[in-house]
Design a protein that fits this description.
Number of domains of chain B: 1
Strand content of chain A: 15-25%
Number of domains of chain A: 2
Strand order of the largest sheet of chain A: 2-3-8-5-7-6
Largest interface: A-B, 26 and 31 residues
Radius of gyration of chain B: 17 Å
Strand content of chain B: 25-35%
Radius of gyration of chain A: 31 Å
Structural class of chain B: alpha/beta
Shape of chain B: globular
CATH architecture of chain B: 3-Layer(aba) Sandwich
CATH class of chain B: Alpha Beta
Number of strands of chain A: 12
Number of helices of chain A: 16
Order of helices and strands of chain B: EEEHEEHEHHHEHEHEE
CATH topology of chain B: Rossmann fold
Oligomer: heterodimer
Distance between the termini of chain B: 21 Å
Order of helices and strands of chain A: HHEHHEEHHEEHEEHEHEHEHHHEEHHH
Number of strands of chain B: 10
Helix content of chain B: 25-40%
Distance between the termini of chain A: 29 Å
Strand order of the largest sheet of chain B: 6-7-8-3-9-10
CATH superfamily of chain B: P-loop containing nucleotide triphosphate hydrolases
Bound molecules: adenosine-5'-triphosphate, magnesium ion
Structural class of chain A: alpha+beta
Largest sheet of chain A: 6 strands, mixed, barrel
């Protein structure tokens, strides 16, 4: 009997082709969109972790409350000691110090005048003064447009677009003007060792990166740090792990009276990343639910139309002595076969596009010219094993449910009326 | 020849029409012996198809009884009715009603698949049935490629393949030319004589009537005349 059903599916293209196409498209879209959402949001989260939040970040409580203002006067003290104990307490994480700072960059024209000036967003990282993977973590080697990473005191990297605006190039001198931790004015002469382009417009237009030892001197922050960032050793973010580490740390260091006491926040508790993470998950689920509903309705209707076309066939089969229940069952078998074919082809297409988009992505740097958001400029998909079933299962279900619903028509009609169609 | 294969008693069939009801069959009392070759004749709308549908357990009486092979039609479940049709009743329609995706062979085989017969049994029975009606050579054609006469032969083969006790044929020659109509009727008459299958026709075709041993005249849902006639011999 199964063989008979398959023969019919293969021979009657009208019966099978439309549902197969509908399912394929639905499954394909679900996979391609999920893969893309996962990829884009995943990249954004990854990017945010690298440049901003870490997997976990330690600040002083007071600093954390006002961190948008980069209040270095509220920075963490005894940074070295704290970092050392972090390394022993949480060996599965890598710990690094960073200082964010603001200020003004001034490009001198060599005659005591100025050829350009601009506000700078500074980031002090462990470049050469401490052994760390910060340079790689921030993807600096690839981001360098001209010059090289600073290798000695007095050198700085600046955003490529920033350098163009100021009219400076590698080897030129610039002056940093800002305030120290204690609120005093400070000036520092720096040599540009290189220019960088991260593809994040907000950074490329105003970024300066200096080794943290230099910045400590510059801002009078000896043994202080704005932030201590922790990254899991495999560089992958797992929210539960980050939360657990944070809870353990906070339980140990909590001090309600001291506003300079350190507090650790996981990525998900910073910059509303938590709702972001949830959004990724709920977006994907939402897609799948919408997909199932739409597909079921579409397939139910194609099932109904197909069913109408097939009342004659059902009538004949009933006259030949087939039970309604058996006809219904064969309809469901057919649905399973067609649903499987459609879902498999949709999955293959969806995964192929995802793999392609994982490699090539869509370049949105043009659109991002003036954006201040931390977003990667090439939006890539990400293949995850769940893509193999998140489209497949709903595709199959939609087809089977759609046919179960439309097949009820066989029962609703009286045998004789179903049969009347034969006389026309 | 006294065993009754079909018996109706005070059979009434009413259909709901608008607010009221329409009586399609009114107090039908008929009985048929095994091996009869009988025709129900009458003008259009007289209730021929309705009567065949009830006898074939595709519909049930509003009142009275119809008993086919000892089974009360009105008390059969869907399943039992299907079983009765599956094992004992063959249908032949005005339009041949073949399943278009299947070949001639498969259309005939389908009936036996429903009976869960083995592949070997099916093959033997199908080829035999195709031979009875003289279309072995068409086994692998699709219904859409057949002429009217060929199509109706397939329908006969499909009805006969399971060797049913009863064949119900609703205007089987309406779409055929005279030559094909005669050929089909001769085939059925032959099967009736060789296999002792009971045939019940509905028709208003004179050619068909000529082959019958018995004619039941329906008028407005009532039996107007029930006569034994001298049948044309094959
Ligand atoms: N399902 C139904 N609902 C309402 N009326 C019906 C239904 N089926 C049949 N009828 C009516 O019952 C009467 C008998 O119909 P039936 O089909 O049995 O006639 P018939 O003798 O086979 O006619 P024909 O020679 O045209 O095939 C007709 O008037 C028809 O309109
Ligand atoms: Mg009729």
């Amino acid at each position: 009997m199964i063989k008979f059903i398959f023969k019919a599916i293969l021979r009657d293209k009208n019966r099978s082709l439309l549902p197969i196409i509908v399912i394929s498209i639905g499954v394909f879209l679900t996979i391609a969109l999920s893969g893309y959402i996962k990829g884009v949001f995943g990249d954004m989260i990854d990017q945010t972790a690298r440049f901003n939040t870490g997997h976990v970040k330690i600040m002083s409580k007071a600093y954390a409350e006002n961190k948008d203002q980069i209040p270095n006067d509220l920075a963490l003290m005894d940074a070295r000691e704290l970092t050392t104990s972090l390394k022993t307490d949480f060996p599965t994480f890598t710990w690094v110090n960073r200082i964010r700072f603001g200020g003004l960059l001034d490009a001198t024209d060599g005659n005591g005048g100025s050829k350009g000036q601009g506000p700078a967003a500074g980031m002090a990282i462990e470049i050469y003064s401490e052994p760390s993977q910060e340079v790689e973590r921030l993807n600096i080697p690839n981001a360098i447009v001209t010059g090289a990473v600073p290798s000695k005191s007095g050198e700085a990297l600046i955003g490529h677009e920033f350098a163009n605006k100021l009219g400076v190039k590698v080897g030129d001198e610039i002056t940093y003007m800002g305030t120290t931790m204690n609120g005093a004015m400070t000036f520092e002469s720096l040599t540009i060792s290189g220019t960088v382009r991260f593809g994040i417009s907000a950074m490329d237009k105003g970024m300066i990166i200096i080794d943290i030892a230099d910045v400590r001197k510059m801002l009078d922050m000896q043994d202080a740090t704005g932030e201590i960032l922790g990254y899991s050793k495999d560089e992958l973010y797992f929210d539960e792990v980050a939360r657990k580490v944070s809870n353990t740390f906070n339980a140990k260091y909590i001090d309600n009276t001291d506003e300079y006491a350190p507090i650790m926040l996981p990525l998900s508790a910073q910059n509303s990343m938590g709702s972001y993470l949830e959004m990724v998950d709920s977006f994907s689920s939402l897609f799948i639910i919408i997909f199932i509903v739409i597909m079921s309705i579409v397939l139910w209707n194609t099932g109904l139309i197909g069913g109408l076309r097939r009342y004659q066939e059902f009538g004949i089969r009933i006259a030949l002595g087939e039970e309604k229940g058996h006809i219904y069952k064969t309809l469901i078998y057919e649905a399973i076969a067609i649903g499987t074919i459609g879902s498999v082809s949709g999955t293959i297409l969806g995964v192929l596009l995802t793999l392609f988009m994982q490699k090539h992505g869509i370049d949105i740097s043009g659109m991002m010219e003036n954006a201040t958001m931390m977003m990667p400029s090439v939006m890539k998909s990400k293949f995850t094993p769940e893509l193999l079933y998140i489209g497949f299962i709903p595709g199959l279900f939609a087809m089977v449910i759609g046919n179960m619903l439309s097949g009820i028509g066989i029962y609703k009609r009286e045998t004789a009326t179903l049969f009347k169609e034969l006389e026309i | 020849m006294s065993e009754k294969i079909i018996q109706t008693e005070n059979l009434v069939k009413r259909f709901p029409v608008g607010d009221g009801e329409f009586t399609a069959l009114d107090d039908i009392n008929l009985s048929f012996d095994k091996g009869e070759f009988a025709g129900i004749v009458g003008p259009s709308g007289s209730g021929k198809t309705t009567l065949l549908n009830i006898i074939g357990s595709l519909d049930s009486p509003s009142q009275g009884t119809a008993t086919v092979m000892g089974k009360r039609i009105s008390s059969l479940s869907h399943k039992e009715a299907a079983q009765l049709r599956n094992l004992h009743i063959g249908f032949i329609f005005q339009v041949y009603n073949l399943l278009p995706v299947y070949t001639v062979y498969e259309n005939v085989e389908f009936v036996l698949l429903l009976q869960n017969r083995s592949a070997a049994e099916r093959k033997k029975a199908v080829m035999e049935a195709l031979e009875w009606v003289g279309i072995e050579n068409l086994a692998h054609k699709k219904p859409s490629k057949l002429s009217g006469g060929e199509g109706q032969r397939v329908a006969i083969a499909r009805a006969m393949v399971k060797r049913p006790e009863l064949v119900l044929a609703d205007e089987p020659t309406a779409n055929l030319d005279a030559k094909n109509a005669h050929a089909i009727l001769q085939t059925m008459k032959k099967l009736n004589e060789e296999l002792k299958t009971t045939f019940l026709f509905s028709t208003h075709d004179e050619k068909v009537m000529a082959y019958m041993n018995r004619l039941i005249h329906l008028e407005d849902g009532k039996v107007a005349k029930d006569e034994l006639v001298q049948a044309k011999t094959v």
